[in-house]
TrEMBL record:
Entry keyword annotation includes Protein transport: no
Record organism: Rhizobium meliloti (strain 1021) (Ensifer meliloti)
Family: Belongs to the LysR transcriptional regulatory family.
Pfam family, one: LysR_substrate
Record GO terms (molecular function): DNA-binding transcription factor activity; transcription cis-regulatory region binding
Stored InterPro entries: LysR_HTH_N (IPR000847), LysR_subst-bd (IPR005119), WH-like_DNA-bd_sf (IPR036388), WH_DNA-bd_sf (IPR036390)
Domain HTH lysR-type positions: 1-60
Protein name per UniProt: Transcriptional regulator, LysR family
Superkingdom, natural source: Bacteria
Keywords, ordered alphabetically: DNA-binding, Plasmid, Transcription, Transcription regulation
Length: 299
């Protein structure tokens, strides 16, 4: 019995996306082709791989077992391409997702590195919160991403890049003390954070949970750059990654607030979809590490 790799690949993406149509779009084939491959796989194995429950596709126990094998085979195929096709320097459009702070500090250097290694490489960059980037990785919409403390997905592999410090910051215009700022004083300010369920939102609300009964003026914005501009103008305060603030601190446009409780370091990861077959991903991952180290993105 010979199993078709294309059938296993189709099965893997149907199992991840829970949709024949979505898997077909991901693989750039027709929906009937995916259906035929799954039916062929079931006939060769003599088992049912999916059942429908309340209009949703659900893996059978045999399907769950096969999923792990399919995941391993796809990873092997990626390794073969990465290690054997080393002379081909062409790279298809690479879909990269990054958090705001990495985009501001590291993305230009990463693009330069990619141009050196893969001449004429095309990049589709997505800048978003870690939760949304993790979801897009899981759905196969991104090839690789840099995320901070992301949620867990069974089909997303995470490698620790390093840790990132964060600080409470404010404009000097607000006249906040240079000594310890109390939680009550923080709560008297307008506070900016990225929308839930982002890490900065959880960090902000968690930090002030004990005293939030006094009222939390939390304003949300999906752009760290915009939040930084608002803080610089004296409109409010925020928790932001320290590496993003170096220029503003150097020019004296913001102050780092001292608080009774030290903010925890945020872990930063390189994430990939376990089923993605892009032979250059290990090399791109190394480039991300090189760029991050060269600019001191992580502590």
């Amino acid at each position: 019995m010979t199993l078709s790799f294309s059938a296993l690949e189709s099965f893997y993406w149907v199992s991840q996306l829970r949709s024949f149509n979505a898997a077909a779009n991901k693989l750039n084939v027709s929906q009937p082709t995916v259906s035929y491959r799954i039916r062929e796989l079931e006939e060769r194995l003599g088992v049912s791989l999916f059942v429908r429950q309340r209009r949703q596709l659900v893996l059978t126990s045999e399907g769950e077992a096969l999923k792990h094998y399919a995941e391993s085979m796809i990873a092997i195929a990626r390794d073969i391409e990465s290690n054997i096709k080393t002379r081909n320097t062409r790279l298809p459009t690479l879909r990269v997702g990054v958090i705001d702070s990495f985009a501001a500090v590291c993305l230009p250097s990463l693009l330069d590195e990619l141009d050196i290694r893969f001449a004429g490489a095309r990049i589709a960059a997505t800048v978003d919160t870690s939760h949304k980037l993790a979801d897009q990785l899981s759905e196969g919409l991104l090839d690789i991403a840099v995320l901070s403390t992301p949620p867990s997905h069974d089909n997303v592999a995470l490698e620790l890049l390093g840790r990132q410090s964060v600080d409470w910051i404010a404009s000097h215009k607000l006249g906040l003390p240079q000594t310890i700022v109390s939680d009550e004083e923080l709560l008297r300010q307008r506070i900016f954070a990225t929308p839930a369920p982002s890490n900065l939102h959880s960090l902000t609300t968690g930090f002030l949970a004990a005293t939030a009964g006094a009222g939390l003026r939390l304003n949300v914005c999906n752009s760290l750059g915009t939040i930084l501009n608002l803080v610089e103008s004296g409109t409010g305060i925020s928790i932001l990654p320290s590496r993003l603030l170096q220029e503003q601190i150097r020019h004296g446009t913001i102050q780092v607030l001292k608080t009774r409780t030290t903010l925890p370091l945020q872990e930063v990861f390189i994430g990939t979809n376990k089923g993605a077959i892009v032979r250059a991903l290990p090399q791109v991952s190394q480039m991300i590490r090189k760029v991050s180290a060269s600019v001191g993105f992580c502590v």
